Amino acid sequence: MTDLSALKYTAEHEWIALDGDVATVGITDFAADKLGDVVFVDLPAAASSVSAGQVCGEIESTKSVGELYAPLTGEVVEINDAVVDDPSLVNSDPFGDGWLVKLRVDVSALGELLDRDAYVELTGA
């Protein structure tokens, strides 16, 4: 089980786990629940650049289409092909096998993200 208090969060309901200068990014269980059953995930290409706050992908569910925002500026070093092949992983394991992308980032930008307590306050969860 992932230690949710060790993660960083965005107001767009994404979580970030940092390992050195590589940030693993996914959407929270709160977002996955609000989306409903995820049926399609469109992720940025590996080796592409993303900018914080900008749309970099899309998540479609049986209820709606949601945009995926880059939580940090960086280079995409890996995408989760398993989620592209089986989007339901976003619902069944959002903090584990349902991760979306890995970005090489400037770790100094992490200070702008939310901690667990601030995210829980934001969502009222």
Automatic annotation (TrEMBL):
<dbReference type="InterPro" id="IPR017453">
    <property type="entry name" value="GCV_H_sub"/>
</dbReference>
<dbReference type="GO" id="GO:0019464">
    <property type="term" value="P:glycine decarboxylation via glycine cleavage system"/>
</dbReference>
<dbReference type="GO" id="GO:0009249">
    <property type="term" value="P:protein lipoylation"/>
</dbReference>
<dbReference type="InterPro" id="IPR002930">
    <property type="entry name" value="GCV_H"/>
</dbReference>
<dbReference type="InterPro" id="IPR000089">
    <property type="entry name" value="Biotin_lipoyl"/>
</dbReference>
<keyword id="KW-0450">Lipoyl</keyword>
<dbReference type="InterPro" id="IPR011053">
    <property type="entry name" value="Single_hybrid_motif"/>
</dbReference>
<dbReference type="GO" id="GO:0005960">
    <property type="term" value="C:glycine cleavage complex"/>
</dbReference>
<comment type="function">
    <text>The glycine cleavage system catalyzes the degradation of glycine. The H protein shuttles the methylamine group of glycine from the P protein to the T protein.</text>
</comment>
<protein>
    <recommendedName>
        <fullName>Glycine cleavage system H protein</fullName>
    </recommendedName>
</protein>
<feature type="modified residue" description="N6-lipoyllysine">
    <location>
        <position position="63"/>
    </location>
</feature>
<dbReference type="InterPro" id="IPR033753">
    <property type="entry name" value="GCV_H/Fam206"/>
</dbReference>
<dbReference type="GO" id="GO:0005829">
    <property type="term" value="C:cytosol"/>
</dbReference>
<dbReference type="Pfam" id="PF01597">
    <property type="entry name" value="GCV_H"/>
</dbReference>
<comment type="subunit">
    <text>The glycine cleavage system is composed of four proteins: P, T, L and H.</text>
</comment>
<feature type="domain" description="Lipoyl-binding">
    <location>
        <begin position="22"/>
        <end position="104"/>
    </location>
</feature>
<comment type="similarity">
    <text>Belongs to the GcvH family.</text>
</comment>
